[in-house]
Write a structure and sequence with these properties.
Layout (H helix, E strand, L loop, with lengths): L5 E6 L3 E7 L2 H6 L7 E3 L2 H10 L4 E5 L1 H11 L4 E4 L6 H12 L3 E2 L11 E7 L5 E6 L13 H6 E7 L6 H16 L3 E5 L3 H4 L3 H9 L5 E5 H8 L4 H9 L4 E5 L5 E5 L2 E5 L13 H14 L4 H15 L11 H5 L2
Parallel strand pairs: 1-5, 1-9, 2-7, 3-8, 5-6, 9-10, 10-11, 11-12
Antiparallel strand pairs: 2-4, 7-8, 12-13, 13-14
Helix pairs in contact: 3-11, 9-10, 11-12
Length: 328
């Protein structure tokens, strides 16, 4: 088996984040539950965008954010995701290349526009996400680079993309390619809203051995297992994957792997500005350290440090020198 030439390759939504501050009354007026994530049609996205205040635009998408974090930590990363041949698509492509992430998926024409996520941030730093997936859910098996997938030490997949038939088929094919090359497959459940209609599909993939490393938060673990007891839920799920990583926000994170269980606190922060991307950067840190064959505890701390940095700024992409912070 050839040695990997790339640390991580990810598949996920290719999204441009549009971030604006708002007050609690704005959320109530637009019927947006604080801290939640909603899926929007293009028309609904246009209406909400028109009502938002001054905004910042930056490339986003959960797995794409993670790859940006890995590149910032000195790792080698690639991303597979679908954009349209439009202005937001060009922004996404430019940002990924500028960050040093390989992104070679051809832009599509004649379909839906590039996906966007309208993120509203309240004074306490909580973000309410409103996503219009657009072209990202048109990712097709034909757009997979088999050689690139096989060249990465870890294939990382996001739950947001698991629902639609086209990208789900592409992800399953990518899992086959990675495992055939002897690589590790990591998966993030992404968001509680993803589990409701996809619980059976997630369970089948996990039970069937498709996932080696699973990322989830505590609420997602309870939803997926149907348990009301966090400890028993972790035990049940950990038995189905080589490594289970569970985040608990300000309470830290736990990893379980082959009988080893380690829990760490959250990294200290000065002030929480915007929690957008906390989970994405935690995964980035964990994966970057994992690719360097670091210990389980070191992987957790690298994730915690990266997450702690990103929540002290607006947006889901790192601003500080992550390479210096995590010292991989």
């Amino acid at each position: 088996m050839a040695d990997p030439t790339l640390d991580i390759i990810a598949m996920g939504d290719a999204i441009v984040d549009v971030i604006a501050s708002c007050d609690e009354e704005f959320l109530t007026r637009h019927n947006l539950p604080k801290g939640s994530m909603q899926l929007l049609t293009p028309r609904e996205a246009d209406v909400l965008y028109a009502a938002m205040g001054q905004a910042r635009e930056m490339s986003g998408g959960s797995a794409a954010n993670s790859m940006a974090g890995i590149a910032a930590m000195g790792g080698t990363a690639a991303f597979i995701g679908q954009v349209a041949e439009d202005q937001l698509g060009m922004i996404f492509e430019h940002d990924m290349h500028a960050l040093g992430v390989r992104f070679e998926t051809p832009a599509m024409t004649g379909g839906p526009p590039t996906g966007r996520c309208l993120i509203l941030v309240t004074a306490d730093g909580q973000r309410t996400m409103n996503t219009c997936p657009g072209a990202s859910h048109e990712l097709d098996v034909a757009n997979l680079d088999h050689q690139l997938i096989a060249a990465a030490r870890i294939l990382y997949l996001e739950g947001y993309l698991w629902g639609p038939e086209k990208p789900r088929a592409a992800m399953l094919k990518a899992v086959d390619i990675a495992h055939a090359a002897g690589r590790e497959v990591a998966f993030t459940l992404s968001e509680s809203v993803c589990i409701a209609g996809r619980k059976e599909g997630f369970a089948q993939m996990i039970d069937g051995g498709g996932i080696d490393l699973l990322f989830a938060n505590q609420n997602e673990v309870l939803q997926l297992t149907g348990s009301t007891d966090p400890d028993s839920a972790l035990t049940d799920l950990a038995a189905k994957v080589d490594t289970l990583v569970v985040t608990r926000g300000a309470e830290g994170a736990t990893a379980i792997s082959h009988g080893e269980r380690i829990t760490i606190p959250a990294a200290p922060v000065t002030k929480v500005i915007d929690t957008t991307g906390a989970g994405d950067l935690f995964a980035a840190g964990f994966l970057a350290a994992r690719a360097k064959r670091a210990s389980l505890e070191r992987c957790l701390w690298t994730g915690a440090i990266a997450a702690g940095e990103v929540i002290q700024n607006y947006g889901a992409r790192p601003i500080a020198d992550l390479k210096a912070l995590v010292k991989l």
